[in-house]
Amino acid sequence: MGLSAPGTWANLVAGQSGVRPLTRFDASQYPVRIAADVPGFDPLSVMTRKRARRTARFAQFAVAAAHEALADGALALRDDLLDRVGVTIATALGGISEIDAEAPRLYGSSPHRVTPFLLPMLIANMASSAVSIHFGIRGPSNTSVGACASGAIALAEARRWLLDGDADYVLAGGTEAALTPSVWAALCSLGALSTRNDAPEQASRPFDRDRDGFVYGEGAVVFLVEREDVARRREARIYAELAGAGLTSDAYHETAPRRDGDVAAAAMRQAVHSAGAVPDQVDLVVAHGTGTPLNDIAETLAIKQALGAHARAALVTAPKSMVGHLIGAAGALAAMVGVLAIHTGRIPPTINLEHPDPACDLDYVPLVARRARVGLAVANAFGFGGQNSVVAVRAHER
């Protein structure tokens, strides 16, 4: 979809799909052979060859995204700042791809040749740790693993650190790079993925009556979040305010959402309330919008419960229609869409929404982008196991 935030945003606004035939491994024997991968990524653009060999792809993504966040934020990490910078970069599956990479040695005749860096490459905290090591950051560091809600949970955590005084700056977001045979086999067995192999760009169809599953993706989104007084003092460019967050659990099923959407709606209400706002002030909902039969109806019901009559007036957009489902990075990507919609006044479309499901009857900005003033946006992220995380972002009053 893009190797930078500006490039990704331009493609989103243009309604450009990043779904293509899967190339990370030979998928010819699988019923699903499409994905939204990150072509052309070179870890050597941000780290040495030695470090790259010891760092899994999901953590490489995180370092690259953190580089961009710091550069865009014009923050020079002087030694006197390093104790006041936190890192919280979430993921769902971490370095699981490294297991498949080492399996031929492990189960073949050379188990002694398994890399000694397998565990450091595998464990989920290595995205946050890789960023801390790369930049020498000594402040709080943590990794949230909340399935598809992970990236939004990280932003909620960053907000709490700033409010509690634990840090002045936080690099926060999500990363995922689990396009690997074992994951693919499991997802195909689960029947969760779209099988539109012959039309990849049309495969991800949130809220459309002909949707048949989500499209798996990879990528990373990292924000530089800082205390308002610190940002003002250094005259930083401020895109938006990370105003609120909500966390709930469906307590219902390992993979399916609650059909009534009421607990997801509670997370949305929490996010709006903690932002000091009311539902009628929400201009945009960046939907979780996976394109699965159950999720889209449940989320529509959740939006209606959370916003009441105002749900008919609010705009809703589903970026997964273009970038696929980034799993651990999905919530951060949704927040990015909310932030840049506020900043630019452009709402990316929900592409492929050609025949709306009658049960999905809100304004999902179908097919083409729209211009609109956005003062408050909420970004939904609902994960396997019923973990719901919602963040609210608001226009910054200068």
Features:
Peroxisomal Thiolase, Chain A, domain 1; 13 helices; single chain; alpha/beta; four-stranded mixed sheet; about 15% strand; five-stranded mixed sheet; about 400 residues
What does this entry show, briefly?
The protein is α/β, with parallel strands linked by helices.
Question: What order do the SSEs take from the amino end to the carboxyl end, as H and E?
Answer: HEEHHEHHHEHEHEHEHEHEHHEEEE
Count up the domains: 2
Biggest sheet features: 5 strands, mixed
Number of helices: 13
Class from secondary-structure proportions? alpha/beta
Point out poorly predicted stretches.
none
Give the N-terminus to C-terminus distance in angstroms. Answer: 32 Å
CATH homologous superfamily assignment of the largest domain: Thiolase/Chalcone synthase
Strands, total number: 13
Look at the structure and give the CATH class of the largest domain. Answer: Alpha Beta
CATH level-3 fold name of the largest domain: Peroxisomal Thiolase, Chain A, domain 1
Radius of gyration, in angstroms, nearest whole number? 20 Å
